[in-house]
Specification:
Blueprint: H1 10-17, E1 28-29, E2 36-37, E3 48-49, E4 52-53
Antiparallel strand pairs: 1-2, 3-4
Length: about 60
């Protein structure tokens, strides 16, 4: 059975634990309609990605 040769230090253990932290998702505004949107994702409100129209959204 594998057994660690040395004890894991507090610093090494805490460095590993930092990757488990939750970080808030970044939100940007759409350049066309100024609605909040995730970066690099087509806007659900107007259908634009940057300055290009990707989707045709029917407005009600």
């Amino acid at each position: 059975m594998a057994v660690p040769k040395r004890r894991t230090s507090h610093t090494r253990k805490r460095k590993r634990a930092t990757l488990k932290a939750l970080v808030p998702r970044s939100v940007v505004t759409c350049s066309n309609c100024k609605a909040p949107n995730l970066p690099h994702v087509v806007c659900a409100k107007c259908g634009y990605l940057g300055s290009e129209r990707i989707l045709d959204i029917k407005e009600e």
